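Teaching assistant's notes for section 4

Start the section by putting this record on the projector. Ask students to predict, before seeing the second block, whether Efflux transporter periplasmic adaptor subunit will look compact or extended. Collect guesses on the board.
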Amino acid sequence: MGRHLRRALIAASVLLAAGGAFVAFRPRPALVETEQVTRGRFEVVVEEDGRTRVRDRYVVSAPVAGQVMRLGVRAGDTVGRGDVVAEILAAPSALLSPRARREAEERLGAAEAMLEQAAALMERAAAEQTQAEADAARVRQLQARGAAPLQQLERAELAQRVAARDMLAAERRRHAAEHEVDQARAVLAAVDATENGEERREVRAPVAGRVLRVLQESEAVVASGAPLLELGDPTDLEVVVDVLTTEAVGITPGAPVTIERWGGPAPLEGRVRLVEPGAFTRVSALGVEEQRVWVVIDLTGPPESWAALGDGFRVDARMTVEAVEGAVLVPVSALFRRGAGWAVFVVQDGVAHERQVALARRAARDAMVSSGLAPGETVILFPPSTLRDGGRVSRTR
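Reveal the predicted structure now:
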């Protein structure tokens, strides 16, 4: 009886040792990170940092050569149209020159011609604005009756806003032309004042606004046309972003834009107004020459939402190039090359199965799948190089 018991104990020990060795040395499942394939909105966006700028900036310059007195205005001061912003003690020798008088008279004539041109452009902008408002009103009526698509209404309203902006720009161009006339007349007035012994000349603000920058703070001798300060309306801002030309070709006027990381509590809305036709070369931080182009963006949200922004503030812009609703989305980190195509590992019952997929488009985070995957399936993110088809996996989350 004791002999049989010893044999049974030895056999049990051998079986336990073999089972322990099998458990210890059998292949362990690979730890992987997974995510589900979803169906949703696919967006191709261009993200770049940009800066704000005042839409219409006026540089007030010295109308005559002479000694400018120390300016009494500072950056941020509010000035009205016609307010005195600088005083110049004109140089009498230049003002008494017959040639200088003749040149001043010719500049006045040119400035008056530019004023007439600006007035004509303003009349044209006013007519286009009236037409755009009428077109938008007709499309609204048609859309309310179901006779026009919503996209047509959006284009008509966009054209109405653009026409209003063009009207504002034309009005300010006329104001600038009036300022040029005032400057030219100031030169002749300075000549007459010098001949009469009155050498001090006042420089007045061409428009109402705020002082953006003071370019000549101290008293100094300046030449005719030297910039003294910049004026503008800091509440009338636009955003400018430089993007690669290869990305700019997909950006169209009217494309929606989200302004982020500007310092406020919520993102701002905007729309692309212009992709400038001329590119420029910039050297990147890695020393690579890049061809880039400026994209101009209008802020479309309520002005009070971005009232804290000023001229030259840094922002991040996300411009939507393409959007597809109801697309099958897979994370880009799950994709890997397999021959000339793309593949993923799909997890089923703890086993990784390699599967070929066809992509329609790729974005920074997600890719739109045209075939090979269905919503709800689980894919492996950042698949390890040692993973093979049929390998066992364990999820880390």
